[in-house]
Design a protein that fits this description.
Blueprint: H1 2-16, E1 27-33, E2 36-40, E3 43-47, E4 50-57, E5 60-65, E6 68-79, E7 83-90, E8 97-102, E9 108-111, E10 119-123
Length: about 120
């Protein structure tokens, strides 16, 4: 019986507290995805830089990339000593995006899909 209670507590604790970020990390992060080149078979296409805004809240996430806005959800993948690693699931996307949030500077890195480069984003106050 005692072991059963411990197992139940651990399961509830791991699922109930898995999405925890401190309030100071919620907010708006802005940056610019740098220009890059994309190889599409026999041609190489230049892709222009684009502004990106990510709004992180306890209820979900909103990403604005250029003129396109997508809503979605986030989950905390890893908590390390200096960073949080978040995974975003946005509407209309088959793959999840990864964000690395620095706990000290409150700066975020959006890991781009190949060949898109990684993008630094700064938190607005």
């Amino acid at each position: 019986m005692k072991n059963w209670l411990i197992i139940c507590f651990l399961l509830v604790a791991s699922t109930g507290f898995g999405q925890h970020l401190k309030k100071k990390f919620y907010g708006t992060y802005k940056g610019v995805i740098p220009a890059y080149k994309m190889d599409i078979g026999s041609d190489v296409v230049d892709v222009a830089s684009a502004s990106i805004t990510i709004v992180l809240s306890p209820e979900g996430v909103v990403q604005q990339l250029g003129n396109s806005t997508k809503n979605g959800t986030w989950k905390l993948v890893t908590t390390e000593k200096t960073v949080y690693v978040l995974s975003l699931r946005l509407e209309g996307q088959l793959t999840e995006e990864q964000l690395v949030l620095d706990k000290k500077t409150k700066a975020m890195i959006r890991q781009g899909f190949f060949p898109q480069p990684d993008t630094p984003l700064m938190k607005e106050d």
